[in-house]
Each structure stands twice: as C-alpha cells, then as structure tokens.
Amino acid sequence: MLTAVKVIPQLVCWALLVPVLSRSLAGTATAIAAAAGFVAGVAGEDLLLAYVGGELPFRPLRGICGIIFLLLWGASVWALYRSGSSRPDDDATPPGPLVAGAVAVSTGVLAGALTLCRLAPLDGGAVRLVPYLSLACAGSILALGAAYPAKYLPKRLAPRGIPLAALIVSVLMVMACSVQRLDLFSPLSMEVMKFIHDFVHQFFESMLIPDHPFFRSDVWGYIGLLFSDKVGLWGGLALWYLPVLFIALAIRLERLPSVAHIRQGAARRKLLAGFIRERRLRLAAPLFALVLLTGAAYQSRFPATEYWDPKPIEVTATPAGQIVIPKKGDVELEDGKLHKFSYRQGGREARFFVMLTPAGQLVVTLDACAICQPEGYGQAGNAVICYYCRTLIPLETVGKPGGCNPVPIASSVKGDAVVIDGMTLLNTWESTVQVTMHGKGMGK
Fold it and tell me: In terms of domains, do 125 and 19 share one?
C-alpha cells in the first residue's frame, strides 16, 4: 500500500500530460507511443539500478532533466524575441507524425524512468518484480486510456510548439523534484546563493574594503542579507519561473492581425475579438506550467523524506587534548549511520559527526560545510543532506573536501577507538563558521 501511495502523484502527472499530448499531436498514435515509451523508461531505469547501483543510475536522468530545462530557457527567449510577429507558424500547424511520435516516446521514457526512481530503495538496488510490473502496467493503461478523453479536450486549449514544450517540461520537473536524488530546484538555489556570496566577497576584496570602518552596523546588517539562504531561494525561483513567464509574455505580445483589407467595421471587430479570445485561451498552457513549477519547488523545499538526525552526544578530551570515541559503546560507529557529537572547552563548542563510508573507512567531519551556514546534516539511505541548501551528498564523497561536503577533520583509528585532536576540531569549526555565518566573511 505504501508503495502505491508513493507513485500516485507521479501517475497523476502522467495522466494529466498524455491527453494534452494526444490532442496536441497525433491523437491515438501519440497515446500508443507514449505508453510504449513509459514502459521502456521503467524497464531501462530498473536495469540501471540493478546492474550499476549507487548514485550512477540517477546522474544521467538528472542531467537530461537539466538539459531540457535549459532548452526550455532557450525556446522561451526565442519566443519572446519573435513576440512582435503574428502567431508563430509552429503554433499554427501541427507537427508531422515522426516528430509527434518522437516527442511522445521521449516524454514517455523520461516519465517512466522518473516514476520508477520514486520506488527505488534509498540504499540502491532494483525495484521488486511486483511493484515494477504494476507500475509499467499502470503507466501504459493510463496512456492508452487517455486517447478517448483527449477527444473532448477543446481544440483551442490544446497547446502546440513552445507552449506545449513548457507544459511537458514543467510536468517532468514536478516528477523529478519528488525524488530528492533527481531534484533540480535545490541545487539551482544553491548555485544562485553561491554566486551571490562569491560576487560580494570578490567585490569587497577588489575594492579593498575592510569589515566595518566604512559602514555603520545597520548598513552592514542589510549587506548581510545577501548571505542568507533566502537570496538563493528567491534567485532560484526567478530562474525557475522566467521561462514560462517569457512564453506567456510572448503570447500576450503577439501582434494583432491586419484588418485593413476588411471594409465592414463589424467584421473587423469580430476578427480582432476572435484573435484576442484565442490568445487568452493559449495563455492557459504557460500559466498551468507556472502552477506545476510552483509545486515542484514546494516539493524540493519540503521533502517528505525523514532523515536520520541523532541528537549530538557531548564528549570530553583527555588531559593531552585528545577526544577518544570507542567504536562500540553507547553508539556503534561502524553501523553505517551518521553519529553526531559535540565538544565543549570553556566557551568554545564544536559539532561533528563520525560515520562509516561505503569504502569501509571511518571518517570524521564537522556538522557544517565551508559554504553554508552551519545548520547541520541528516542522512537518508546512501546520502546525507545539508539542511541549509538542501543539497544531497553521496556517502562516497563524505570525508572529502570541497563544495557542500561536510568539512573533514584529521583523525586516526587506534585500536577500538577513533582519536581526534580537540584543539584542531575547535579551530576548524570556528574558522569555518566565521566565514559562513550571517554577515561574516565579507572582508578580510
């Protein structure tokens, strides 16, 4: 029952998309091609999960989703560039059967693969036979059954060309963002945030402006807003929404048809009114795509996954300043889970965690990275997530520096314990947090 509930949103998106494809392209043939593509996508992704495993089966799929979103950006800019002309030819004439079939099959393949990823276990591996067959059958039945109700969809509401592409891409983005390993919105927000952070850093350094002498504290507080996660969120939303907004604007700015050759005023008004009414109807596709993208962003910001996030255990150091954590005791360090600890010395405190990587190595890292504010990490399956920017980090890369990876701490395994230098831990925590905390690190 739980398995069925997980894919219901995916199948609903698929059931909404196929009638539009059938009505906009080649009718029943489109539904058949979409059904075949969906089954192929389910089968292909399951084979990758079975024979490759890990994060590798998700990377090409995520890359393809990113590419089609970039292509939508290009198409939207082109549509806006042509907005001064009359209705574009690609909207006025239906595509040929080969183009329609290729669009239906490729959309079906992506939708099938994205839906199967929703069922993939967190620790990798193929989907079991019964859920796999049930999903393939459900997707194909929905696609074939969509050919009949598609006949009753008003022709004027069936988008073509770039508005249809916006609708297809937005549905696929909803399906992708429901799987955190395929999520695009959170990484987009993080890149925006990182770009703004780096730009402000470089600007202040190039202008040789130190921390506070030239600014009052309240002015510096406003500058500090550029270092909050809200900057990444709103910047990501702007990049997320602009393509469909450009397409809607391009439709709205289409030039009215010439009526100079029509003598009768009533005929002129009828022709213009009909064009305006049809133009308003064609705005339905990009506006509905806007709603779908909002749903995708919401799923990305508030995922349904529950993360393993234990309360930090307070540890102390030996007289020599060494923190010694037994492999077995209150916690089992080698059970593959993330285990958090905190160390306090006087007024100084640092948070860190210890975990066993898939390579069998015990690593120690800060519960923070060198980019984001130190809100910590949680674990789900074979990845940890940064709570600040929602970036997923595969367990294979935990313990390695760079990006949003937790900052590694030098440690050693002596006998049945992990040994960490307490002063190194505190110094690394403070130097990291000093850069990433709100309003800090903008000057040197």
Answer: yes
Span 154-190, pLDDT tens digits: 776 778 889 999 999 999 999 999 888 888 998 888 7
Output the six-digit token pair for 99: 């183009």
177 phi/psi in degrees, rounded to 5: -70, -15
Instruction: Pick the last residue of a domain from 269, 301, 333.
Output: 301
Of the chain, the percentage scoring pLDDT greater than 90 comes to: 30
For residue 177, the 8-state DSSP code is H
Residues 317 and 218 in one domain: no
Q: b vs e for 393-418, b when ≥16 Cβ sit within 10 Å of the residue's Cβ?
A: bbbebbbeeeebbbbbbebeeeeebb
Bin 360: left if φ > 0, else alpha if -120 < ψ < 50, else beta.
left
Residue 327 C-alpha from the chain's centroid: 36
Residues 199, 331, single domain; the answer is no
pLDDT digits (tens, 9 = 90+) for 267-281: 778 888 878 888 888
Nearest alpha-carbon partner for 430 in 350, 322, 375: 350
**DSSP code for 306:** P
Domain with 400 in it: 313-436
